[in-house]
Amino acid sequence: MIKTILFDVDGVLLSEEHYFDASALTVWEMLISCNYLGLEPEQFITDYSEDEIKEIRELVFENDKVLKFMKSRGLNANWDMIYLSFCHQLIHLFSQIKDTEFEKITKWCQAPITRETLLEIGRVLSNYRVKMNFSLFVEEFSRSEATKQELFSYLNELAKEKLGVETSIFKKGELWSVCEHVSQEWYVGDEHILASTGRPSVQKGKKGFLSNETTLAPRQEIDELFQFLNSSGFTIGIGTGRPELETIQPFQHLDWLKHFEVNRIVTADEVLMAEKELPERKSLSKPHPFTYIMGLLGKEASIQDCLNTRLPLENAETVLVVGDSLADLLAAKQLGCPFAAVLTGLSGKDARSDFEKHEAEYILDTVLDLKGIL
Question: Among residues 301, 291, 82, 299, which one has the least CA distance to residue 181?
Answer without folding.
Answer: 82
